Each structure stands twice: as structure tokens, then as C-alpha cells.
Amino acid sequence: MCRLLKYCFSHCLYATMTKFKEVVKDVNRWTSVRFLGYLSNLCLFVAVCLGLYVMWEKTVNSIILVILILGLFALGIASIFYYYFSMETVSLCLIHAWFGFLLGLLSIHYNPSFDVEEQVTDYLLLSSTVLYILWALLERVCGISKPKPMFLTSYEVLELIGFSLASTFWLPDKSAGISFLSSAFGVLVMALRTKSYLALPNAVCFAGLSMHVFFLSGLVDTSPFALSCFFVRLISQPLLDVYFSGLSAVERWQPLLLQAGLWRRLTLLPLIAVEGAFLVLAGLKLAPLEVWNLLLPAAAFTVFGIFWLICHVVLVFTLCAFQSKLSDCQRVLSGSARSDVGSLGRVMTSKGMRHFCLISQRLAFFSVASTVILGAISWQQLNMLYISAFLLVCVVESLVHGLFHELGSYLGGTAVGYAVVIPTNYCSPDGQPTLLPPEQVQSLNLRSTGMLNHVQRFFSHHMIETSGCDYSTAGMTLEGLRTKLRAFLDTATTDGPRHDTYVLFYSGHTHRSGDWALAGGETLRLEDVVGFWREKNMGHCCRLVLVLDTDNSLCLASDEEGSQRRSSNNNNKSRTAAEEIEYEQRLAFNQSSTSQPPKHYSSKVNKA
Question: What is the mean pLDDT of the chain?
């Protein structure tokens, strides 16, 4: 037996020293930062072992000693998996689950006696927390830690499950409330990682109500040091990522947006169950009241309960519609050559998700407000389950609001494009039209055909809906072009509202005044296009982008600038400084829109 123990000890020591030599050989400033994490975990390990020993010494409960021995045995098994079988994920999952369970025991089973051992345990827990925060901060400042698109890591989920199991083991009557509170904390971590709009107010609200539940109300006797160590270690990295994470909104929500349709729809079931449980718990407020004290609270609960129910039914239907639109976007993305997150953002933009999210954001905000009002009316100060359910519902609805707010702010508006390509078969250097040679006409036709193909690919690449691409070697009549322009400017999305951007491309012959040369000697002036635009865009905030492949495009910008200056001088004899600045900005935008296309348009057209 002694030889076996000696053999196992020598092999463990050899494996440890070998690993230490490999680490020391590649030491740099990055590994020195990681040592802070190792030191924090070491302090936590010593604190947990010492705390459980002190707990067993006070209560003389053999179950605590058995748990401590099982914890050490689990640590040994995890070390064997890590060093001998290279199963790092399994070993780390086992360690995190046990640390969550043991920290839950230290947090819940608390009988302060101010012994030296207990004070040492508290100081070790505090040191572990401070070192962990410093390690997480230095990792982000030095660029070691790269943000990844995820909601919760497996280690965080296991620690929360272990904490909930500890409450079930030690306080079965309070286990439901603590489990709800752990779930609310997990959703809060998700809200911080996704940079939800209401994440920080929810964090403040969660901290205040958790302090009331665990410390002020006397519902549960908890250790402030162990509880703070558990929650702070879990929330420190997501809280720092609110500032340090550079992921876009679509990248932060990637686990949801790229999830399969069936699993994504199943997430609505827990949401509906939690909402229903909160409504039932809120209604229990009326149960202990006497008959003569029941009238006013019952009336208030009925009114705001109906309002809450209407808001949340609308929210559920909104989420179902969002799931359907997202499934359509995924089908379009699966049929394209590229299926990355950036392509998904362009597909969602082309499908009008921005307008949908902007409307849904307000509906989700009404749901959050109705929950807060109903929770305040039916507040139950000594009901831990109700407080935990209220926190969980608020955080979940704030997460839904953050989804719509982030996508509505990040995604671009819809765009529709119309292209007109008319090859030139004659030139007029001195005002008299002269037919071009057949070779040059063929060359111009080939160039115009290539230009039309490039414009179509440009529309397809940027997910711009195509209203039409007209190509005519014989020219177009004025009436026919006016009809097509009116139809193009009257185009709307499938959901009903107008597009945000209308892109009009023209490649062909123009006169020296900049007017478009059409068949039969007719011309189309810029004032006609602007008149059509103002007629169709009355009361809307859309924009028109003109992309011109002509020789005399600058004349159009000059004429438009002069007409705007003359009309402005006639209508407004005096302006304030703010109005003058706004006028100059609008004038610069019109000039850039008519003479030169934006960068992401001009680069493609010039390349074409």
C-alpha cells in the first residue's frame, strides 16, 4: 500500500514539475498575467477547503466532511484527466461544477462566530475576488483575451447549476427562489455580453434586490464574502466586455441569429412559462387580504394585469414574427455563396429587418414597463420566490428589448435600384450629330453591356432590390422613361413602408447642359427627376442617390446648387446660425448625391 502511494505521489510530482518547466521555458509578459488567474484560483481553493473545515468543526456534521473529501477526490480526478489524458474540457467542467457547489454551501450555510479561521477564509475569498478582477482587466488591456460571440460559457452554466444544487441540498424550502435567482443572474450575464440597452440598469436593480433578499430581509443567512466572491467572479468579465468588446451587434447575437429554426422557436416555451409563473405569483398578493381591504388592490391588479397581459401577448406574437423573418433570412443566406455573419447582416438589411426591429423595440419596452408596474403593485417583500421571478422576468424582457434595439440601430435600411443604359451611336463635337464608325459603335455597345452587367452585380452584392435595368440601343422615349421613373420611385417594401434609399443609375449621352439625351431629340432634365422624387417622397424620410456615367454630370450639380440658392434667397431672407449650418449641410449632401456617388457606390462603378 505504501509503495502504491509512493508510486502515485512520485508520478504526480513528476508530471507537475514537467508542466512547470514547460511553462517557465516560454515565460513572457502574457504568461505573467495568467499567473494572476492561477493565484486567484489557488486562493479560492484554499478558502473553500478551509471554510468547509471550519463549518464541519462548528456543526460536527459528517455530511460536510464527506462533501469536502468528495471535492478533493473530484479535484484529483480532474487533474488526472487534464495531465494524463489531455481531456482539458472534461476536467475544467468538473472543477467548475464542484467549485460552484462548494461556494454555494459556504454562502448559504453561514453561522458567524468571528474565529481566526473564519476571518482567514473571508480574507482569502476577498483576495481571490480582487486578483480575479485584476487578471480579467489586465487580459483585456494587454489584448490577451479576444471577445467571442457567445451568451454563456459552459463553465458559467456549470457554476450556476452547482450553486442551485447547493441550495437544493441545504435549503430545500428556498431552493426554488434561489434557482430562479441564479437563472436571472445567468440571463443578466447574457445581457451584459450582448451589450443590451437596459443591461446596466438591470445589473443595478439585481444588485439592490439581491442584497435585500440575502442580507436585509433575513430570509436566508448568507456569507457576504462567499456570495460576493461567487457573483463577482462570474460577472466581472461580461461587465468589462461592455467596454472592451469590439464585436458588432450581429456578431454579439450570432449564437441566436445562426441557430436552427426549431431550437430557436423552442426558446419561446421557457419565456411563456416564466411569464405565466410571474403572473400567478403576483396574483398571490391578494390571497391574504381581508374582504373589506380587497376591493382597491383587486381593481388595480385587474386593470394593470389586463394591460400586462395585452402587452405580453403582443410581445409573443412579435417574437414569432421575428422568428419567421429570421428563418427567411437564413434560407436566403444558405443559398448564397457566403454564409458568414456579415452576409447575414446584409440579408437582414435587404429583408427590412431594421424597420421591423424599430417597431418591435417599442413593443418590448411597453412589456418591460408593464412588468415593472405590475411588480410594484403586487410587491411581496418577504416572498423570495416572487422577488426572484420578478428579477428573472425583467431581465429576460430587457434582453428581448436589447435584441430589437441593437439590430434596429445596427442594420441599414432597405434599398431599391433602377439602371438605364443607352449606348451612344453618334457624336456632336460642334453641335451637329455625326454617326460613329461601326467598329466604334460595336466597342461602345460592348462597353455598355459590360457596364449593365457590373451594375446588376453591384445591386446583387449589396442586396439592393432591382426595380429594373433597361438597355436600349435605339434610345428611350421621354414618356416611357417618365413612366418607369414614377413606377421606380413609387416602389415600396413587401411590408408596406417605402424603401430607405433609391439608387438611380444612368449611363448614356447628355447635352452640354447635363440633360439626358433621349430618342426623337427629347431630353430629361434634372428638375424633372427631382420633381418626381418630391412628389413621391412627400412626408417620408427617404433619400435618392443618383449615379451618372456621363460627360456633363457636373452641370447638373451646379444647376441644382444655383436653383437651391435662388429659391432659398427668395423664401428665407434671414436665417439663424443654426439654420445656415443646416442649409449648407443639406446643400453639400445634394451636391454629393447628384455629382458624385458615395464611396461604396463609386468604387464599384469605377471598377466596372
Answer: 78
